[in-house]
Design brief:
Helix content is about 55%, strand content about 10%. It is built from nine helices and five strands. The protein has a five-stranded parallel β-sheet with strand order 2-3-1-4-5, sandwiched between helices. Helix 1 (about 15-25) crosses helix 9 (about 185-205), helix 2 (about 30-40) packs across helix 5 and helix 7 crosses helix 8. InterPro entries: P-loop_NTPase (IPR027417).
Length: about 210
Amino acid sequence: MPGITISSEYGAGGALVAPKVAEKLGLPLLDKAIDADIARSLDVSEAEAHEGERKGTWADRFFCAIAPVADTVFGDTEQYSHAPNEFRDQAEDIMRSAIADGAVVFGRAGAAALAEEPNVLRVRLYGELEHRVAYLMRTASVSEERARADIASVDGGRAKYMQHLYERDITDRSLYHLMINGPALSVDECVGIIVAAYGALRETSTAPAAG
């Protein structure tokens, strides 16, 4: 079993669980580093890599085409690239290279990217909205209003990324082997469940065929 993907609703504990799973198993963790690698490879900003699409004003594109050194721009209408293949392919190359030796991939649509890999455990952390709000208020020391706004923004961005690159619903249960109610358990309990599932599936994948 070369790897694990961990997807998480915001406030369900994924940001704490994923690093601990990687540490417990002695595997590297891939999260924001994927964005940095994509940004370097495709010559885009890390924000663009994170969202899986190139952005720029109409004027930026116009002046890049006719005068690379032009420093006068106008307009503020964003134009998006609707061909996500370059971002999807680059991200998948990074993930597949890492899981060849074992890795934990946090976010970045890893469950969809590696859905056809038989030896990758795909995990989703979720939680009731009110529980996630309370979790963020407690752990991030933010107001209830801020917690709700952050959940809507982050969850929306993650869902958009999955839909844009893979045309999949991030909440589609068929993408995951294991779904855990993160706020209902401690971080260590979540880690223990994932590590145990990883070990069980690895034993199954390496067991000799009967007969």
